[in-house]
Write a structure and sequence with these properties.
Protein name: CsbD family protein
Shape: elongated
Order of helices and strands: HHH
Helix content: over 70%
Keywords: Membrane, Transmembrane, Transmembrane helix
Number of strands: 0
Pfam family, one: CsbD
Organism: Kushneria aurantia
Number of domains: 1
Family: Belongs to the UPF0337 (CsbD) family.
Structural class: mainly alpha
Strand content: under 5%
């Protein structure tokens, strides 16, 4: 588990706690901030999952990962030099 996933999960939990406090105290700004923090935490956690998956694929299939990277580099190079 990467730092991104752990930090994302922590932000998600903190956001849900803020949201619950906002509901309890009837504080709309705290509730909204909690929702935003929770959503940001979920996005960060999903990013961490993608990074973990890419890392695992690279370890299992190094030649395949190299071929994908070369293909992406070729396509980006072709798009950037196109007029």
């Amino acid at each position: 588990m990467t730092d991104h996933r752990m930090e994302g999960e922590a932000q998600n939990v903190v956001g849900k706690a803020q949201q619950a406090y906002g509901d309890f105290a009837d504080d709309k700004s705290m509730r909204t901030e909690g929702k935003l923090r929770s959503a940001a935490g979920q996005v960060q956690s999903q990013y961490g999952e993608v990074v973990d998956s890419a890392r695992e694929f690279t370890v299992r299939q190094p030649v395949g990962a190299l071929a994908i990277a070369a293909g992406v580099g070729f396509i980006l190079g072709a798009l950037m030099t196109r007029r």
